UniProtKB/TrEMBL annotation:
One Pfam family linked to the record: Glt_symporter
Protein name as it appears in the record: Sodium/glutamate symporter
Topology of the protein relative to the lipid bilayer: Multi-pass membrane protein
Organism: Hydrogenophaga laconesensis
NCBIfam families according to UniProt: gltS
Subcellular location: Cell inner membrane
Record's keyword terms, sorted: Amino-acid transport, Cell inner membrane, Cell membrane, Ion transport, Membrane, Sodium, Sodium transport, Symport, Transmembrane, Transmembrane helix, Transport
Gene: gltS
Assigned protein family: Belongs to the glutamate:Na(+) symporter (ESS) (TC 2.A.27) family.
Annotated TM spans: 12-34, 46-67, 79-98, 105-127, 173-194, 247-269, 290-314, 320-343, 355-381, 387-411
InterPro entries cross-referenced by the UniProt entry: GltS
Role this protein plays: Catalyzes the sodium-dependent transport of glutamate.
Length: 412
C-alpha cells in the first residue's frame, strides 16, 4: 500500500531548448534576488548563477525522489554561450598585458600540473581502499575534475572497453557534478579568507571589463553602434575559432572548442589595434568595449546557470559511498593546496587571492566556474587583469595538453 505508483506520465518530463533557456534567464534573476536579499551570499562571494542553478537542480532532485518525476532539460544553447564568453575574454585581452603575465602563467601551470598528480594519486588510493580497480579512481581525479565533462566523455570508452571498468562513465559524471558545485562554493570564500588573513588591500581599480554586472552600473552607457560592433566581432571570433580548432584537430590533439575562440579573440583584438590604432568604422574598441563586456557577462551567467540546473543529482546514488568519500578528500586537498601553495607561489597579493578563487575551477570544476568565482571577487574588491589572462589560458589550453599526457600514462 505504501509503495509509490509510477504512472507513465510521471516517469519523464522533458523541457525543450527554448523553454530551458528561458528558465535559465529566470533562474539567474532568482539567484540575483536571493544574493541581494541574503548578506551571507554576498559576503562569501557566491556567484548569482550558482544560487539559481543549484536551486533548480535541488528542486529537480526532489521531484525525482518524491513524485517519481524525472525532469530533463535540453541545454542546446549552453555550449554556444560558453564560446561567446571566451571569445569576449580574448577580445578583452591586450597582448601587451599577456606578455606581462608570462611568469605567473608558467608558475600556475606548474602548480596545476603538480596538483593533477596529487589528485590522481588520491583518487586511485581511495578506489583501491574500496576494493575497486585503482584506475577507476582516475575518473574521480583529473579526468572529471580538471578535465571536465568533455574529457570524461572522451575517456569513458577506453575505461569501459579496454580497462573493463563498466561504471566508469557514471563515476566520472558524478565526480564532475559534485566538483563543479564545490568549486563554485569554495572559490569566493577562499579569496575572502586569504584577504582577511593576510590583510590584503584590494586593487581599487574600478575598470572591470570582464565579470562586471553592467545592469548594476546605470552610469555606464551602451550605444547601438557599439553593441552591434561587439556582436559582429564576437561572431567573427567564433567563426575563426572554429577554423583554429579544425587545424589543431589535424595534429591529433583534441582541445575544448572554446580554446580556439579564446585564441581567435586575442588575434582579432591585436589585428584591430594594428590596423586601426585610433579606431575606425568597423573596428572601434572604445565604442564596443562595454558591449563586449556585457555580452560576456550575460553569456557566463547563463552558461553556468544552465550547467548547474542540468545536474541530475539522483544519478549519484549507485556510487554514493565512493564518490562522497573521494570528493570530500579531493575538496580538502584542493583547499589546502590553494591556500598554502598556490597563494604563496603566485605572489601573496590581491592578484594571487583572485587567482586562488579561480583555482577551484581548475582543480574541481571547469574554466567557467573559475571565471565565475573570480568575477564575483573582482565585483566586490576591484579589477585583477592578470588573473583573467592567466587562469583561462591555464584552464582552457595548457592544462588540457598536460592532462592528456598524465591520463595516458596512468590509464594503461
Amino acid at each position: 500500500m505504501g509503495a509509490m505508483i509510477s504512472l507513465p506520465w510521471r516517469t519523464s518530463f522533458g523541457i525543450d531548448p527554448f523553454t530551458s533557456f528561458t528558465l535559465a534567464i529566470l533562474l539567474l534573476f532568482i539567484g540575483k534576488g536571493l544574493t541581494q536579499r541574503y548578506g551571507w551570499l554576498r559576503r562569501y562571494n557566491i556567484p548569482e548563477a550558482v544560487v539559481g542553478g543549484v536551486l533548480c537542480a535541488l528542486v529537480a532532485c526532489g521531484l525525482y525522489y518524491v513524485f517519481d518525476v524525472r525532469v530533463v532539460f535540453d541545454l542546446g544553447a549552453r555550449d554556444m554561450l560558453l564560446l561567446y564568453f571566451f571569445a569576449a575574454i580574448g577580445m578583452g585581452t591586450d597582448v601587451r598585458t599577456l606578455r606581462e603575465g608570462g611568469k605567473p602563467l608558467v608558475v600556475l601551470l606548474v602548480l596545476a600540473s603538480v596538483f593533477m598528480l596529487l589528485q590522481n594519486g588520491l583518487g586511485m588510493a581511495v578506489a583501491e581502499a574500496f576494493g575497486m580497480d585503482p584506475r577507476a579512481g582516475l575518473m574521480a581525479g583529473s579526468i572529471s575534475l580538471t578535465g571536465g565533462v568533455g574529457t570524461t566523455l572522451a575517456w569513458t570508452p577506453h575505461f569501459v572497453q579496454t580497462l573493463g571498468i563498466p561504471n566508469a562513465g557514471e563515476l566520472g559524471l558524478a565526480a564532475n557534478m559534485l566538483g563543479m558545485i564545490a568549486a563554485c562554493l569554495v572559490g569566493g570564500p577562499m579569496a575572502a579568507w586569504l584577504m582577511r588573513r593576510h590583510r590584503i588591500v584590494s586593487s581599487g581599480a574600478a575598470d572591470v571589463e570582464v565579470g562586471t554586472r553592467y545592469q548594476d552600473e546605470p552610469h555606464l552607457r551602451l550605444d547601438y553602434h557599439g553593441v552591434l560592433l561587439a556582436l559582429l566581432w564576437l561572431n567573427l571570433a567564433l567563426m575563426l575559432g572554429h577554423g583554429v580548432n579544425e587545424l589543431v584537430a589535424l595534429s591529433g590533439l583534441n582541445l575544448p572548442a572554446f580554446v580556439g575562440c579564446l585564441m581567435a579573440g586575442i588575434s582579432l583584438r591585436s589585428a584591430g589595434q594594428w590596423l586601426a590604432p585610433s579606431g575606425g568604422r568597423l573596428w572601434n574598441w572604445s565604442s564596443m568595449r562595454l558591449g563586449v563586456a556585457l555580452i560576456s557577462d550575460i553569456s557566463l551567467g547563463l552558461f553556468l546557470t544552465m550547467a548547474l540546473m542540468g545536474l541530475r543529482l539522483w544519478e549519484l546514488e549507485p556510487v554514493l559511498g565512493f564518490i562522497a568519500t573521494t570528493m570530500a578528500l579531493q575538496v580538502a586537498l584542493a583547499v589546502a593546496f590553494t591556500a598554502f601553495v598556490v597563494f604563496r607561489f603566485m605572489g601573496r597579493d590581491y592578484e594571487a587571492a583572485v587567482i586562488c578563487s579561480g583555482f577551484g575551477g581548475i582543480a574541481l570544476g571547469s574554466t567557467a566556474t573559475a571565471i565565475a568565482n573570480m568575477s564575483a571577487v573582482v565585483r566586490a574588491y576591484g579589477a585583477a587583469p592578470k588573473a583573467f589572462i592567466v587562469v583561462p589560458l591555464v584552464c582552457g589550453f595548457f592544462i588540457d595538453l598536460i592532462n592528456a599526457l598524465v591520463i595516458g600514462l596512468l590509464a594503461r
